[in-house]
Amino acid sequence: MITTHRLAKSFDGRPIVRDVSFDAPDGTITGLLGANGAGKTTTLKMICGALQPESGSIFVDNAVDETGAPGDPLSRQHRVGALLDHMGIYSRLTVRENLAYFGRLRRMPAELLEERIESVISVLRLEAIADRRTKGFSQGERMKTALGRALLHSPQNLLLDEPTNGLDIPTIRALRDLLRRLRDSGTCILYSSHVLDEVRALCDRVVIIAEGRIVAQGSPQELCSQAETGSLEEAFIELTSPARSC
Amino acid sequence: MNQAMNQALTIAHKEIIDGIRDVRSIVASLFYALMGPAVVGLVSIATHANTKPESGALVLTSMMAIFTLVAAFVGGMNVAMDTVAGERERRSLLPLLLNLVSRRSVVLGKWLAVSFFALAGLIVNVLGFLLVLAKAGFHIPAFALYTWLPIAMGLFSLPLLAASIQLLISTISRGVKEAQTYLSLVVFLPMGIGMFLVFSPAAKQAWLTAVPLVGQQLQMEALMNGRQIALVEPILLGCLTVVLAVVVLLVAAGRLQHDEIIYGN
Fold first, then answer.
1. Which CATH number fits the domain A2-245, given the four candidates 3.30.1360.120, 3.40.50.2000, 3.40.50.300, 3.90.650.10?
2. ipTM for this model
3. Do the chains contact at B94 and A106, CB–CB below 8 Å?
4. Contact B91 A85 (CB under 8 A)
5. Looking at beta carbons, which residues of chain A come within 8 Å of B78?
6. DSSP designation for A137
7. Considering only CA atoms, which of A19, A14, A76, A146 is closest in space to residue B260?
8. Residues A26/A176, Cβ–Cβ less than 8 Å
9. Positive/negative CA dihedral, B16, B22, B25, B29
10. Residue B253 burial by Cβ neighbours in a 10 Å radius (0-12, 13-18, 19+)
11. Rounded to an integer, what distance in angstroms lies between the CA atom of residue B152 and that of residue B234?
């Protein structure tokens, strides 16, 4: 479970995230929906510990340190697997070597790491390419490898930032099936996207972010009711309109 | 501390494997490392034919020192470029930072890998020179372990400093092209200092033997020309070079803390 409270972050003096508070429960796919530049990716980067918020707090699985504070960013990374907009796999290493590298960095015991690599390769159907160097991989193969890296340590919380970008339809469907299976097994999934069809097809809850602020959150049906419209697209436009935020 | 070191070693191991598989870069680095011995080999043939052996040896030893210092800088250049600026460009730096690894460990691991290649370049260069000089029939003075070991301390600390400087530049650069531009300029540093000292003998003050980069040049020249060097000089030089390397490395680690690294270009 992920809880953020009043997160704020600016870059080069420009506020990017102003006031972001929401819950993403276990066993739920929570969509983080917003236009380009709304602050979705920065929020995810703060949750996974890559960026430090200027103010506000982030709790992952309600973990706290001895002072009751949320704990440092590295401690959050134990509980989180992330596939952000950067796939970042190494082209001169094989799929198996890529996974092993990140597992070793996470200090996974050798036997467990071996077991998890085989499991991830099997779940993501990477057997045929597992021992190939990733140079020349298709977008889908690269995405699967990067997703494998995020799932390697069996995280309770999974952050995905526009994971379907550039993927073909069969790969998108396979990804959706996988995410539903993970959700059903109790994983908390935070799924950032600006593609409404994607969010409607997959997410149980939706958090709408505009200009660095949360403007609405609830199930897709609740958001439609809130905006008094029948479509999520209309609801998104209505809820993020400048007139409404004033 | 132990865990941080283990992570740094994991990163270094991966970077070395990655670097070795980059065959084109390896060939380019070998070419640079052996360029000095090849040039000196050709010059030695010419000087042997046209001048007195003593004056020929003087020219060769000065040239050799410059090429050797340059080799320490070019051996790890491609890896330094690829390992931070390249990772930023390929967007693999952020995923790396999401794996319970501190940024100091990241920098330390990458530095170890760059140092490995820089050291390898230097060793290839020195071996190449020894071969060329032996073939050309030049007598290398004081070719004994007790003389070479202290000199090696001064000389082989240089790749560590070169790796730190290159890593810092790679951390500042936003992409491979930018890093390549700056790193190519950095190679002129040992070349420029070397040339200056060759053509301005009056500038060779005693205290300069303790200054990293300049000291290595002076001590190599002294060794090749058969002059005595007090044991303390190369040891002091080696220590100062390593200290400077660590300071530069800490600056590079500090750079990696900046949000700009995460936000990209």
1. 3.40.50.300
2. 0.87
3. no
4. yes
5. none
6. -
7. A14
8. no
9. positive
10. buried
11. 8
Report the C-alpha gap between A148 and A44 in whole angstroms.
Answer: 19
DSSP string, B74-117: HTTHHHHIIIIIIHHHHT-HHHHHTSS--HHHHHHHHHHHHHHH
- A80 contact residues in B (CB cutoff 8 A): 98
What is the number of other CB atoms lying within 10 angstroms of the CB of residue B88? 23
Quote the tokens at residue A22. Answer: 């929401």
CB neighbour class for B158 (10 Å; exposed up to 12, middle 13-18, buried from 19): buried
Per-residue model confidence as pLDDT tens digits over B43-100:
777 766 555 555 556 667 777 888 888 999 999 999 999 999 999 888 888 899 888 8
Phi/psi at A203 (5° precision):
-90, 140
- Name the residue with tokens 């080696």: B238
- Residues A48/A50/A55/A56 CA torsion (nearest 10 deg): 0
- Contact across the interface for B21 and A92, Cβ inside 8 Å: yes
Tell if the CB–CB gap between B92 and A78 is shorter than 8 Å: no
State how far residue B10 is from chain A, nearest Cα, in angstroms.
Answer: 7
**Residue A68, Cβ density class (10 Å: 0-12 exposed, 13-18 middle, ≥19 buried):** exposed
Q: What distance in Å separates the CA atoms of residue A210 and residue A174, rounded to the nearest whole number?
A: 30
Which residue of chain A is at minimal alpha-carbon distance from B95? A88
Q: Spell out the domain ranges in chain A.
A: 2-245
Q: How far is CA B56 from the centre of its chain?
A: 27
- Minimal Cα distance from A45: which residue of B? B262
| Amino acid, res. A87 | M
Interface probe with A: pick from B14, B78, B98, most Cβ of A within 10 Å: B98
Q: Which one of A11, A77, A89 has the shortest CB-CB distance to B99?
A: A77
pLDDT tens per residue across span A186-235: 999 999 988 888 888 899 999 999 999 999 999 988 988 888 888 888 88
